Amino acid sequence: MRIAVTGSTGLIGSALVRSLRADGHEVVRFVRRDPARADEARWDPERGHVDPAGLAGCGAVVHLAGAGIGDHRWTAAYKRKIRDSRVLGTAALANALAGLDEPPAVLVSGSAVGYYGDTGDRPVDEDSPAGHGFLPSVCVEWEAAAAPARQAGIRTAFARTGLVVAKEGGAWGRMFPLFRAGVGGRLGDGRQYWPYISLHDEVAALRHIIDTPELSGPVNLTAPEPLTNRQVTAAMSRVLHRPAVLPVPAAALRVVLGEFSQDVLGGQRAIPTRLLRSGFTFRDPDIEQAIRAALH
Fold first, then answer.
1. Which residues are in the DUF1731 domain (predicted)?
2. Of 204, 189, 201, which Cα lies nearest the Cα of 225?
């Protein structure tokens, strides 16, 4: 199958491209610069331009592009970048797909469990409402921007991803060096839920959505049993054989991270109901399995 991917240089996108190509699929990577290789196509999400030649003949499109949530302090300008990179990019791609004479069968568009806001101890799944705050509002707009593709008859699924366990990037990419140095610890009181998923299972779940016609709308990409930050910290300590006795006070996180600290200190007890009902099998359902998979 010919499959187009945006965000192909990111943690998840690069792993997805490797997996697809290993199984013989043709992958077209959308890039913001002039294409330098035959497998690249140009797009300019802020200006609404997508090269239709890159989409021609695709059976599926996976849209993963977006500015990093935790890469910078949340100034007004960076919050606008977080929002625009997702909403404008999704709108540009959805409009381009809707305009094709032969559109793909499926669009898998990135989203996040941040949609639910801070849920405390309350379990949430895909039928739960959106939360309140900056990230939930971004997720709502992000998913709504794909409407042109859905209205054109393209099966559209929203991959609401949790925290991906990988040493190459994301939250865990920052945690591994700290724990190896013996200075890892819980964040705040550690009671907030962390809906994690291994990188292997994230990629497998994205491919499962592509291959499963009954999956559309929101799909939580998280391990079956979300754990608290305190439990995750304890698991990191066990696997890495390092102490985890230096908690990061909530007040310190607020000073360093600003508004983003609200999301670090909050969490989602998100359950992947639709993924499980569709027959998906997790390779790394346990946090220690996910951590070991990331290390090896």
1. 248-293
2. 201
Mention every residue, 6+ apart, whose C-beta is less than 8 A from residue 255.
none
What is the SS3 assignment for the chain? CEEEEECCCCHHHHHHHHHHHHCCCEEEEEECCCCCCCCEEEEEHHHCEECHHHHCCCCEEEECCCCCCCCCCCCHHHHHHHHHHHHHHHHHHHHHHHCCCCCCCEEEEEEEHHHHCCCCCCEECCCCCCCCCHHHHHHHHHHHCCHHHHHCCCEEEEEEECEEECCCCHHHHHHHHHHHCCCCCCECCCCCEECEEEHHHHHHHHHHHHHCCCCCEEEEECCCCCEEHHHHHHHHHHHHCCCCCCCECHHHHHHHHHHHHHHHHCCCEECCHHHHHCCCCCCCCCHHHHHHHHHC
- Model pTM greater than 0.85? yes
Query: Among residues 112, 157, 172, which one has the least CA distance to residue 280?
Result: 157
Q: What is the number of domains present in the chain?
A: 1
Model confidence over 85-133: pLDDT tens digits? 999 999 999 999 999 999 999 999 999 999 999 999 999 999 999 999 9
In 3D, which of 134, 153, 169, 192 has the Cα closest to residue 64?
169
pLDDT given at position 179: 79
Give the CATH number, domain containing residue 222: 3.40.50.720
Rounded to whole angstroms, how far apart are CA atoms 72 and 88? 20
Identify which of 19, 92, 14 has the alpha carbon closest to the alpha carbon of residue 50.
92
Identify the domain containing residue 61 by its residue range: 2-295
**Angle (deg, nearest 10), helices 199-211 and 11-22:** 60
What's the CA gap between 211 and 156, in Å, rounded? 12
